[in-house]
Amino acid sequence: MKTRSAWVICLALTTASILFYAFVPATGSRKIADTIRIETGQISGVKSNTSDVVSFKGIPFAAPPVGALRWKAPQPAQSWTGVKKCDAFGPSPMQPTPRPFGVYTAEFLIPEQPISEDCLYLNVWTKANKGAKKPVLVWIYGGGFGSGGAAVPIYDGEALAKKGIVVVVINYRVGVFGFLAHPDLSKESPDHASGNYGLMDQVAALQWVKRNIAAFGGNPDNVTIDGQSAGAMSVNCLVASPVATGLFNKAIAESGSMLLKKASFSLGDREGAEQQGVKFAEAAHAKTLQDLRSMSADFLMKVPGRMGPIVDGYVLPEPVAQIFAEGKENKVPVITGWNADDAFIGAFKNKDAFQQQAKEQYGADAGEFLKYYPANSDEEAARSQININRDMTFAISGYKWAKMQSEEHGAPIYLYNFNHRLPAAPDFVKYGAFHTGEVAYVFDNLKFLNRPWLPEDQPLADLMSDYWVNFITTGNPNGKGLPAWPKFDVKSSNAVVFDKTAVSGELHDKGELEFMLKRLGD
Question: Which residues contact 147 (CB under 8 A, 6 or more apart)?
């Protein structure tokens, strides 16, 4: 598998999707809900103090992937006797200790503890009765495939569950534990594949939902997968994957896909990934898989190597772009989009340096490039660097998905731009509509963020969460009292811009995206 600097960047960025502190329940008594039965036994949850929503946290959906099960497809969870109290989050997957950085303060990093290889747990929020057949949302976190977790306040499902859906937030393995490929791992696998264990965990969680969600009042035949950043890329992989067929009927991808052949994020190939795994084992001084499986998780995390999804021949039999081009993907309605400032830049070049780089990199096309990404002043050059980084990392791949799906004239796809700058202290203003900024609005969870909210923020959260709930329910985000959100088609290039409210119109940066697609050969 090819090593890419983007994996390092987004590993550091730990997806901007996650909070540092663990959720602290509201004060006062909390009554354990009546028990319900799932396939592995009886569980009890916790009823909210402020609504009819009941949460069930830390439900095992697969066996702990430890010991001999390290780097194997998820195995069935063990049954239990009595009533299992599901009143606390399960551990987050193994990953480096989170540290605040940039705009991602303590609000956006996972809890330091507990973190464990024993991480295959999920959480459910519902106010439905058994047999209600409510629509279901399954949320997949981001984190550059190297970090992240479900035990995060910003992913709390109560607000969305109050709007009439069942919310499921899942864990999956990340980093070396989720994405190590190796020839010997492929040989021992009944599917003759290795490397995509994190994606297999997501499939296993969806299979669990299919078998068990009715016990929570959810409809197993009306399931939407939604993810952000690496979670959005995971959603794109699941839409492409034959092993996920029939497990969901709608998809939402917030800032990310795997549809580009040459970009900051693209799929590695099996042979390259297996050779990277061989080098990883050599660096760890492991001669056999048994040696690797006997090493501590803390030690393995210190061995150099950055990993992510690959074309393994099983979960992804072909590159995602090829699967879509051949019309083999799971054909479902989709929402996808990106944020105005979905960009990660270390140091900005001044206008002269940026113009010179454009001439060197784009040659005869440099003039056209600078028309779309101008640099007539240092300030303009800085903005263009944000835009090109955003486009190369997230926007072009999302736009390609919208184009490909709309050209099939099958399932609809809806496109958005999130351009709203979250209110913040003066030193955070420079981050604009940053990566992950939309998540709290989608979940209607502004209350979990310590921000100086303005009068327009809560109405925007109400609006976006209503669109999402409508789509999760029917496959169409539109509904009574909401501004119209037309489906995307190539000719009109319709998109909705979320700022102080929602406004629909033609995608304003279509020219830039088309130019870069052509340059990339996509």
Answer: 11, 14, 15, 18, 95, 96, 98, 110, 174, 175
Give the pLDDT of residue 428.
74
HSE of 66 in the Cβ direction (CA atoms, 13 Å)?
Answer: 12
Same domain, 247 and 370: no
Residue 494 is inside which H or E element, if any? strand 494-498
Per-residue pLDDT tens over the stretch 484-508: 999 999 999 999 999 999 999 999 9
Q: Amino acid letter at 175?
A: G
Residue 236 and residue 166 in one domain: yes
Whether residue 352 is found in the same domain as residue 376: yes
Supply the DSSP string of 157-225, one letter for each residue. -HHHHHTT-EEEEE----HHHHH---HHHHHHSTTS--S-HHHHHHHHHHHHHHHHGGGGTEEEEEEEE
pLDDT at 136 over 90: yes
Query: Is the pLDDT assigned to residue 109 strictly greater than 70?
Result: yes
Residue 280 shares a structural domain with residue 302? yes
Q: Comparing C-alpha atoms, which of 333, 321, 340, 324 is closest to residue 512?
A: 340
400 and 522 Cβ atoms separated by less than 8 Å: yes
| Prediction pTM value | 0.93
Q: Report the candidate in 125, 319, 145, 109 with the shortest Cα–Cα distance to residue 232.
A: 145
Same domain, 379 and 396: yes
Domain extent for 18: 1-29+43-74+116-331
Give φ, ψ of 16 to 5 degrees: 30, 35
Q: In angstroms, how far is the first alpha carbon of the chain from the final one?
A: 21
pLDDT at 194 over 80: yes
Q: Which residues pair with 11 in a beta bridge?
A: none
Looking at residue 343, which CATH number applies to its domain? Answer: 3.40.50.1820
The DSSP bridge partners found for residue 121 are 60
Q: Specify whether 169 is located in the same domain as 67.
A: yes
Q: Which of left, alpha, beta for 481 (phi over 0: left; psi -120 to 50: alpha)?
A: left
What pLDDT sits at residue 248? 98
Provide the pLDDT for residue 421.
93
Higher pLDDT, 40 or 429: 40
82: number of Cβ within 10 Å: 8
- 318/406 same-domain check: no
Flag whether pLDDT at 444 surpasses 60: yes
Q: What is the pLDDT of residue 110?
A: 81
Token pair 């028990």 is found at 35
Cα gap 254→369, rounded to integer Å: 26
Residue 60 CB neighbour total at 10 angstroms: 23
Residue 337 and residue 217 share a domain? no
In a domain, 111, yes or no: no
Q: Quick one: tokens of 512?
A: 């830039």
Dihedral class, residue 411 (left if φ above 0, else alpha if ψ from -120 to 50, else beta) = beta
Backbone region of residue 210 per phi and psi (left: phi > 0; alpha: psi in -120 to 50; beta: other values): alpha
**Would you state the pLDDT for residue 112?**
76
